[in-house]
TrEMBL record:
Subcellular location: Cell membrane
Keyword vocabulary terms for this entry: Cell membrane, G-protein coupled receptor, Membrane, Olfaction, Receptor, Sensory transduction, Transducer, Transmembrane, Transmembrane helix
All residue ranges annotated as the G-protein coupled receptors family 1 profile domain in the record: 40-290
UniProt GO cellular component terms: plasma membrane
Protein name stated in the entry: Olfactory receptor
Family: Belongs to the G-protein coupled receptor 1 family.
Pfam families: 7tm_4 (PF13853)
Gene3D superfamilies, per database record: Rhodopsin 7-helix transmembrane proteins (1.20.1070.10)
Amino acid sequence: MAEENQTLPEFLLLGFSDFRALQGPLFWMVLLVYLVTLLGNCTIILLTQASPSLHSPMYFLLRHLSVVELLYTTDIVPRTLVDLASPYPRAISFQSCVAQMYVFVVLGISECCLLTAMAYDRYAAICRPLHYATLMSWRACTAMVGVSWLMGIVTATTHSSLIFTLPFPSHPIIPHFLCDILPVLRLASAGKHKSEISVMTATVVFIMVPFSLIIASYARILGAILAMASTQSRRKVFSTCSSHLLVVFLFFGTASITYIQPRAGSSVTMNRILSLFYTVITPMLNPIIYTLRNKEVARALQRMVKRQVSSP
């Protein structure tokens, strides 16, 4: 058993230091993806704010999703780039590790809830069109966004309280590029088993409950689509849902594999690759998916580009 420190320890983030030959290419890849993520999500935020045709509940929620994605990736990527630029593992202070994980969890849970709210918006629009204005009023949309942030804060506070009150070894080493929940929790030298069960239970609940609600919403939507007589109507309705469905499966798919797989079957390298995907790649893909697959967003972008080109 490692000797425990009475003072706050520093954590050593291994990052990708065991793959030194890949650190240079990874640095440039992550930097490029981060810049595209900033550009794409800022574009979505500006479009949904400036274009009157996008002043609807669905795009109000999409705008907040883009804000979450921006903050989410910015919590992780700058630190990851600094670490990739160094040939050796770098230390992160106890307070910085707590802050990174707290923000990471707040934004991750908020994104789960926002994706659920967006599924409910599609359900209300397709299955309850006569009541849509009431179900998705601006007051209701604001409440959904507020609850999303509140759920994130409550979950992050609970996780931080459970994890960072445990004793850690004097020189803890995290086999990851960020202060993620499970790698940090498994470093604790006592009380680990009970806390790991509690944290895993909370994590599973906050992943599976929103995902189950999304599946339930789309089951009702699928029923409504199949009841339509016109093939053209079915295609039109499905096209309004396809972008959101793709984003949902990207986010929940990687999160489920990372956090719900059995510990015995988990791989440190695979966990880092999956984490890199949902913390770096997915935030870049979301605005691309919504721009390419959503005709209203694509048209609004074209109008904005034309105005910029034609303006003196």
